Amino acid sequence: MQRRDVVTALAAALAVPAALGTSPATAQEHPGHGPAPDELTRRMLAVLTAELDDRAAARSLVPHVHDVGFDWHPETAPLRKLDFLVAYGFGNRPPAGGGDPTKVRPEPGPVNEELADTVARIRRHRTIPVYAQWEIARFLESKYRMRHVISIEPVVAPDGTITYLSTDGVAAQVAKAREHLPGGVGTAGVVGFRDHIKRCVQTTRDRGMKAYAPQGHTMPHTYDPKSGQPWTRRRDLYLVHDMAAQWQVLREKLVTGAFPQG
Which of 2, 188, 230, 236 is deepest in the core (most CB within 10 A)? Predict the structure, then answer.
């Protein structure tokens, strides 16, 4: 296949989701994790086969490329099936009073307030415990006076140095908090930024919990250009960041699965 043909095929593949009607407005109700559209996978397979000159390798890669690059929507479940909520933070604002950023907490910022608002809307329909990253928990406590909220705090060393938890770090703390409950861990309803929530659900599951996005609830999607985390200021930057994180996790799973003994 000539280079021009490869580019044309890839462009057509990228156009398929739009042709199928997938857009941010409709994406929240996407069932998630279904098979890729036949035409999309066919074109992706053709492009990769031509580029790699290896159909077997291309066939093994296509599902991963589709999952990481073309599917941004987690599986959902009705609120009645969820036993607790896990709310993952997104971005922040630099400390209002300045100071050493390694020892002074940032401001939670407007995106985390929107995430807290989302938790509050969900809780109006069902009162279940909430495990919230501290940036969200602060708003749940100050703005909503919400009860049954467990704040997932950063790790503070004896010298005051703050280590902020990753998405996986938050999930690990939640799993630890629920592992010895009499009724078992239960099923998590995940709240997260629109472009982050798929990975939030996957990470929660990777920590041994059943997890879904609450069905019928739209997640915040407006980026904060003043965020203290540069990769969360613009969508084009964040999507690359999130895909890189997904690939890193997938790499570890595939290598461990292929060679469990190292």
Answer: 188
Q: Which amino acid is at 257?
A: G
Using alpha carbons, select from 197, 236, 168 the residue that is nearest to residue 71. 197
Cα distances (Å, whole numbers) of residue 178 to 75, 83, 133, 138, 189: 22, 11, 15, 21, 14
For 208-258, write each residue's pLDDT tens digit.
Answer: 999 999 999 999 999 999 999 999 999 999 999 999 999 999 999 999 999
Please say whether the beta carbons of 89 and 112 come within 8 A.
yes
pLDDT the model gives residue 38: 84
* Dihedral sign for Cα atoms in the order 25, 28, 29, 35: positive
Q: How many CB atoms lie within 10 A of CB 251?
A: 11
The tens digit of pLDDT for each residue in 40-99 reads: 999 999 999 999 999 999 999 999 999 999 999 999 999 999 999 999 999 999 998 888
Helix boundaries (H) for 156-234: 167-178, 197-206
Q: Report the SS3 class of residue 180.
A: coil
One-letter amino acid at 11 equals A
Return the DSSP state at 107: B
Query: Model-level pTM?
Result: 0.86
Q: How far apart are CA 161 and CA 145, in angstroms?
A: 29
- Strand 84-87 with 187-191, pairing: parallel
Question: Residue 126 is which amino acid?
Answer: R
Tokens at 120, concatenated = 């509050």
9-12, Cβ contacts within 8 angstroms, sequence gap of 24 or more: 9/43, 9/46, 9/47, 10/43, 10/47, 12/43
For 208, residues 6+ apart whose C-beta sits below 8 A from its C-beta are 175, 185
Kindly state the percentage of the chain with pLDDT values over 70: 86
